[in-house]
Each structure stands twice: as C-alpha cells, then as structure tokens.
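Customer escalation, tier 2.

The customer says the design service returned an amino acid string that "doesn't look like it belongs to this structure." They asked us to rerun it and document both sides in this ticket. The original structure tokens are below, unchanged.
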C-alpha cells in the first residue's frame, strides 16, 4: 500500500506541472496579455508599457517566463497583484479563511442532512418519506444556486428582514458569534441544500444496491439486528461511491463557490477569482488555478487511501 501511494504522489508532480504550464500559456495568449490592465489606462505611455514589460519579464520567451514563475513560486514568491499592487500570497490568505469558514459549514450541514435522509430513503423504499426525500433531492439538484440565493435574499432579507443581505459581518462591530451566524445562515443553507440533495441521492442508490447483496442476506441469517446489518455491513460499502463525490467537492473548501459568494457578497476565494478575471489580474489567477489544481489532485489521492481503509479488497489488490 505504501508503494502504491508513493507511485501516485510521484505521478502527480508532472501532472501538476503540465496543468500550470498550460494555464500559464493560456493566460499569456489572451488578447492584450497581462499588460491589458495597463494598456486601458490613458496615463500609461508606450515607454511606460515597455518598462513594465521588462520589469515583469514579459519580454522573455514563454518557457523562460514559466521557469521564472515556477522558481519564484517554489520560493514562496507568488508575484504581485496588478490590480491591488500587493503581494498575491497575503491577498489569497485573507480570503482563504473566509472561504473555509463558509464552505466547511456548508459541507458539514450537507453531510448531516444527506446521511440520515439517504439511509432512511433506502431502508423505507417507496414510502411517503422516500417520495418526500426524492422530491427534496431533485429540488436541490435542479434549482440553480444563484436563483435559490436570490430568492432567499428577497424572502428572508428584504421581505422578512431576518438576515443580512450580504457580507460576513457587521462593519465596525466587534467579533460576535451571533453576528457571524446571522451572515452565515443564508449562504450556508443555500449551498447545503444543493449538496445534500446530491449526496443523499447517491447514498440512497448505493444503499439499495448494498442491502440486496449476499453478505447482507448472510448477516440477517446469522440473527443480527437490522441496525447492525444496515450500519455495520451495508453502509460501509454503500458509502464508497459517496466518498468520491464528496472528495471531488472538497477543493471548494479552499477555492470557494463563485456563484454563492457573488450573490451573497461573501469575501472569499471564488469572488476573488471573479474580480481578478474581470481586472485581468493574471498573478492572482495563476495562484488560484495552481491552488485548485493541487487540491483536486491531492483529494483524488486521498480518496484512494480512504478506499483502501473502507474496503479491504482494495488493500489486497494494491499490496
């Protein structure tokens, strides 16, 4: 198992380099290039553009530019934001905690909803609860997040006045858990509803398949209670497909959710990416793309490790 993990880690290095190189080339190939933000400024002359181009190393060939960017990245120098005139790393760190705060709460609530809903729907197939849970799942999956977010703002903020319309805290106030929760509840609920609908549906399908397997029938024949059969035998195998889905969503813990953060004016990574794209802020965009690519690769590797823990057959095949 250890050799398998080492091979996977070594295989991710060239993949990550390829992703960052392709992203770097695309960024440089966009019409106007990284200097677009300066060319649109009437106060910047042609001589200024030439000086900035040399200062940023944009006069060098693309492979050389990428090598310089990669070397600086490995040293901890992520460049400087064109729009904010600040180092990229502190700019990202400021938003990272906000995104983790929102996305972490959303994932936790989604899982707390999805597990009981998915298990009860499978064990009570075609019951009233199963039909109700199916409707809940379809609503969560089909309704766009931005539309649901706008409806939540109109109803609960503008009409009822229960929650703030945007942001993550009251400006000028001291830290208060109650104040933070008031700003968190709406965006968290919207995102949790969408994720819980997806997760519960996958878990229900997996549970229905698992409870009809021979090992479950054998467990029942041994006299085990329904609770032991469901939670000790069926659920352990049924949760494997859900692990994949959750792991693919986990990078959002750090990369943020663009639509939700935009609708609720949440100062997170997703909103930072959108604003940087609108401002042609290429150093910030490259940093965010690199972080997201690394997290996707890392969590895919983590899924394989969790698989081996959950399913002994995978450990045997890879040992």
């Amino acid at each position: 198992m250890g050799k398998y993990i080492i091979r996977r880690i070594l295989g991710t290095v060239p993949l990550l380099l390829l992703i960052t190189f392709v992203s770097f080339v695309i960024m440089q190939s966009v019409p106007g290039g990284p200097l677009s933000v300066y060319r649109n400024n009437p106060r910047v002359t042609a001589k200024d553009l030439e000086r900035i181009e040399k200062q940023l190393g944009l006069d060098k060939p693309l492979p050389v530019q990428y090598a310089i960017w990669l070397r600086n990245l490995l040293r901890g120098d992520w460049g400087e934001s064109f729009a904010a005139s600040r180092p990229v790393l502190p700019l990202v760190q400021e938003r990272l905690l906000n995104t983790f705060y929102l996305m972490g709460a959303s994932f936790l609530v989604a899982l707390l909803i999805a597990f009981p809903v998915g298990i009860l729907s499978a064990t009570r197939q075609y019951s009233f609860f199963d039909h109700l849970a199916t409707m809940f799942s379809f609503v969560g999956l089909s309704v766009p997040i931005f539309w649901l977010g706008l409806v939540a703002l109109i109803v609960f903020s503008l009409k009822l006045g229960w929650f703030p319309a945007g942001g993550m805290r009251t400006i000028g106030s001291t830290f208060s858990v109650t104040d933070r929760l008031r700003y968190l509840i709406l965006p968290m609920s919207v995102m949790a509803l969408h994720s819980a609908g997806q997760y519960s549906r996958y878990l229900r399908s997996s549970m229905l398949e698992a409870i009809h397997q021979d090992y479950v029938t054998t467990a029942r024949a041994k006299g085990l209670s329904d609770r032991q059969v469901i939670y000790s035998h069926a659920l352990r195998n049924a949760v494997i497909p859900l692990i994949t889905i959750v792991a693919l969503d986990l990078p959002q813990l750090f990369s943020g959710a663009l639509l939700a953060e935009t609708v609720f004016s949440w100062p997170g990574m997703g909103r930072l990416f959108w604003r940087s794209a609108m401002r042609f802020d290429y150093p910030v965009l490259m940093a965010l793309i690199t972080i997201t690519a690394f997290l996707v690769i890392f969590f895919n590797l983590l899924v394989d490790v969790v698989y081996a823990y959950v399913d002994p057959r995978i450990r045997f095949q890879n040992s």
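Tier 2 assessment: The sequence is consistent with the input. The chain has 15 helices and no strands. Residues 2-74 form one domain. Sent an explanation to the customer and offered a walkthrough call.
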